[in-house]
Design a protein that fits this description.
single chain, 449 residues, mainly alpha, Amino acid/polyamine transporter I, two-stranded antiparallel ribbon
């Protein structure tokens, strides 16, 4: 009986996540928790910085617009899932429309997107525990505040211990059931962070120390109007969850409930994004850092205890720890499909499973040390891989329409999604490159002088 129960327990891999008929028995509320966990990750930390660039009103409009486009793109994916000849997965739908090359392209883009996001998770954890530097300011970490500068409070060591002692045991879990409570806890921690931020902001307003944040962009602070487009990829990354839609859908008792679960999750996450963005920007204004958690290294307002600031930072760092294994499993599966196509399921090959997991964790750690800024990473991954996964690929599936089920308005919407994605991403990439070149040139002139 024990062996039978263990065999029936769902594996943390798509090959065992369900079939075309679904029937996993999960509730809509459970799907909402899992979807919201997939959506709310490190992207929330850069929403206040996006408001610093765009102003409050345009950022709120952009959040709503990207949420609507995400809902449309997921609806496209789910509609074609029922007609696809391959497995009920995003890669299966892409393979049905564009063959093996389409499925492989999705695997590559999901691997790069999830890897980039996981690197950001490690960077943020390093910011919280060991501090960061930016705009000429040093922002202390929690360990530095408590114990001062020590070799064991250095960023590299803290991130190594976190990766090996905390995260590695979690990502080695193979079964979805092993993580059944972490999604709910992670969303609760995100809500705790939001409420603490709101509480501190309200206190500063009542004490008269807060300034009303800018509603519109301040063009005098921008090197070019095109710099406004650099905030778009950040919001796109914040709503890139499409690669987890099918595994979560497979566990629902009624797969038709997935559309409702997606819409509830998008509304919930949009509200959280808007609240954190507004109150974070209200607290720190133009001093808001790309990782707003770094701004909580000192009292956010007159009379606010530093312990409250630390609680805000630690709550979200723990949230990322709980989200990490869910995202890592998507990375591991896609890399395995690329490197070992046609091999037996990863969950049944212990040597391959452990070796691949360890190699990926080592690579993520090295990248997190080499790339210190989450804003830079979000700009480039959002402009390339994330925008393809969330907007361009779903639109291309509809335009391809291999089963002849798309209506004229569907194709018009798909074409609009692709055009908007290509234009905004191209401008953002060009602006990022020009800013980098300009920054390098200023650095060379400063050294020469």
């Amino acid at each position: 009986m024990g062996k039978r129960a263990a065999a029936d327990e769902p594996l943390l891999l798509p090959e065992f996540s369900g079939g075309h008929g679904g029937g996993g028995g999960a509730s809509v509320s459970g799907a909402v928790f899992n979807l919201s966990t997939s959506i709310i990750g490190a992207g929330i930390m850069s929403i206040p910085a996006a408001m610093r660039v765009l102003g409050v009103a345009p950022t709120l409009v952009l959040i709503a617009a990207v949420a609507v486009l995400s809902d449309v793109s997921v609806e496209f994916m789910l509609r074609y899932t029922g007609w696809a000849c391959g497995p009920p997965s995003y890669a299966g739908v892409m393979g049905d429309a564009f063959g093996r090359a389409g499925a492989a392209a999705l695997n590559v883009f999901v691997a790069f997107t999830t890897a980039g996001t996981l690197v950001v998770y490690l960077i943020i954890i390093g910011d919280v525990m060991s501090g960061t530097a930016g705009a000429g300011e040093e922002h202390a970490g929690v360990l530095g505040e408590l114990f001062g500068a020590r070799w064991w409070t250095e960023r590299e060591f803290v991130m190594l211990v976190t990766a090996v002692v905390v995260l590695l045991p979690l990502v080695l879990l193979r079964r979805v059931d092993s993580l059944r409570f972490t999604s709910a806890v992670s969303i609760l921690l995100a809500a705790v962070f939001m409420l603490i931020t709101m509480g501190i902001a309200v206190y500063t307003i009542l004490s008269g120390t807060a300034k009303m944040p800018r509603m519109l962009p301040d063009f005098s602070r921008l090197s070019s109007p095109f710099e406004l487009f650099t905030a778009v990829p950040v919001i796109v990354v914040a709503f890139t969850f499409h690669f987890n839609v099918h595994p979560i859908r497979a566990e629902l008792s009624k797969t038709s409930d997935m559309k409702s679960a997606v819409r509830i999750s998008l509304v919930l996450c949009s509200v959280i994004y808007a609240a954190v963005g507004f109150f974070g920007f209200l607290l720190f204004g133009d001093a808001t850092m790309p990782d707003v958690l770094a701004n909580f290294d000192r009292s956010s307002g007159s009379g606010v205890p530093q312990a409250l600031n630390d609680a805000a930072r630690l709550s979200y760092a723990l949230h990322l720890v709980l989200v990490f294994p869910l995202l890592h499993y998507s990375l591991r599966v896609n890399v395995d499909e690329l490197l070992f196509p046609g091999r037996r399921p990863l969950a049944t090959d212990t040597r391959r499973f452990v070796a691949l997991t360890a190699a990926l964790m080592a690579a993520l750690y090295v990248l997190a040390i080499a790339i210190p800024s989450i804003w830079t990473l979000f700009q480039y991954t959002g402009s390339t891989f994330a925008v393809c996964i969330s907007l361009i690929f779903p639109g291309a599936i509809v335009l391809r329409d291999v089963h002849g089920i798309a209506k004229r308005k569907d194709k018009a919407m798909a074409a609009t999604m692709i055009i908007l994605a290509v234009i905004t991403s191209s401008i953002a990439i060009a602006s990022n490159i020009m800013t980098s070149i300009s920054g390098d040139a200023k650095g060379v002139r400063a050294v020469a002088s």
